[in-house]
UniProtKB/TrEMBL annotation:
It comes from the Eukaryota. The active site is at E276. Keywords: Signal, Transferase. Residues 1-22 form the signal peptide. This is Glycosyltransferase family 15 protein. One of its GO terms (molecular function) is alpha-1,2-mannosyltransferase activity. One of its GO terms (biological process) is cell wall mannoprotein biosynthetic process. One of its GO terms (cellular component) is membrane. InterPro entries: Glyco_trans_15 (IPR002685), Nucleotide-diphossugar_trans (IPR029044). It comes from Daedalea quercina L-15889. Coiled coil: none annotated. Belongs to the glycosyltransferase 15 family.
Length: 375
């Protein structure tokens, strides 16, 4: 990279981070972890919970050519504009050919405005679900004084979302509860979509079938380093879990992606979970269930600021075989401030409109090279 390009890139990311920080700390339909460059430079009860809107006169569930899959979107009513942008692009780039259903989740009921707008832009089945109280809010057993002190310190340290309880609720929900929602019980695979993302390329194949036919459990487009101040004790807890549950660790796993010394320390690499295509049965399985419950009891989602990105990444890396983790190279994707832009023939075939030179894959703070080396 030329010195001038490096300077421009760093300045662009710093500006983007300031832009993100300008949003309310109560936002949760955003990225679950943003690397801080400064640090990296240093080395209810009887209530109806949802409404269902099947596409009129069409039973897509009988389509034998599709996988048993859905899109999952965690959003609030205030995210409508960003969600519409994301869904419309997904429809245009991919889903208008396949008509996979959508599941929207919120900790409060969706407004009629939100639901009507979504139904305007897709002919696929859409369901709107309410998140159970205990799956979202800070549990009673958390020591609030200890958690409050931690938030105050993170604010002083200028940790992104360091003072936000709703953000922590979101991270915990995505780590251990979204796949338990009743609306997802009938599905095998999911594709997570967030507000204000960009899909650059046309997809001429079905990523869900790639997962199904290849026995994949986790798919990603961007990987990077986590901000260490959000997870100071996470790896210690992971090592404790490994020591107590060695029988659950998969042979041929992806430990080399997340550790450079065979598990002694964590190198902070993770898959950026604002985009992920995954196997719901993997998260619902015995191994990951035990893994999440063990971590949850440590309280790190609230005493620190554990993100679902490192939790999912470590879980997939340890509990699945390395070849079950898939890089979707030809899905052009951006979640500010990072983007993956397919290169060469993939860019041409996808009729991608991103600039191939603006590609995060092998920048110095990307972890893709570790994924490549692992395989």
């Amino acid at each position: 990279m030329t010195p001038m390009r490096y300077v421009i890139l760093v300045l662009a990311i710093i500006i983007s981070l300031h832009f993100i920080l300008s949003f309310s700390h109560e936002d949760y339909g955003r990225a679950t972890s943003i690397t801080r460059l400064k640090e990296q430079l240093k080395g209810s009860t009887g209530q109806k919970t949802y409404d269902s809107y099947p596409a009129p006169g069409v039973d897509y569930s009988s389509n034998s050519e599709r996988a048993n899959a859905t899109f999952v979107l965690l959003a609030r009513n205030s995210d409508l504009k960003g969600i519409v942008t994301s869904v419309k692009q997904n429809e245009d780039r991919f889903n208008k050919q396949y008509h996979y259903p959508y599941v929207f989740l919120n900790e409060e009921p969706f407004s009629d405005e939100f639901k009507n707008m979504i139904l305007e832009i897709t002919s696929s089945q859409v369901e709107f679900g309410l998140i159970p109280h205990d799956h979202w809010f800070q549990p009673d057993w958390i020591d609030e004084m200890k958690a409050s002190d931690a938030r105050k310190q993170m604010i002083k340290d200028q940790v992104i979302y360091g003072g936000s309880v709703p953000y922590r609720n979101m991270c915990r929900f995505n780590s251990g509860f979204f796949y338990r929602h009743e609306l997802l019980a009938k599905y095998k695979y999911y594709w997570r979509i967030e507000p204000d993302v960009t899909f650059f390329c046309d997809l001429h194949y079905d990523p869900f079938k790639v997962m199904q036919d290849g026995n994949k459990v986790y798919g990603f487009t961007i990987s990077l380093y986590e901000y260490p101040k959000t997870i100071p004790t996470l790896w210690g807890a992971v090592k404790e879990f490994i020591g107590n549950n060695s029988d659950l660790i998969a042979p041929g796993n992806a430990m080399s992606f997340i550790s450079d010394d065979n598990g002694e320390t964590y190198n902070n690499c993770h898959f950026w979970s604002n985009f992920e295509i995954g196997d719901l049965d993997f998260w619902r399985g015995d191994a990951y269930s035990k893994f999440f419950e063990f971590l949850d009891k440590k309280g790190g989602f609230y005493y620190e600021r554990w993100g679902d990105a490192p939790v999912h990444s470590i879980g997939a890396a340890l509990l699945a075989k390395k070849e079950q983790i898939h890089f979707f190279n030809d899905i052009g994707y951006r979640h500010n401030p990072f983007q993956h832009c397919p290169q060469g023939d993939s860019h041409h075939k996808g009729q991608c409109w991103c600039d191939p030179k603006e590609n995060f894959d092998y920048e110095w703070y990307s972890c893709l090279k570790r994924y490549d080396a692992m395989l």
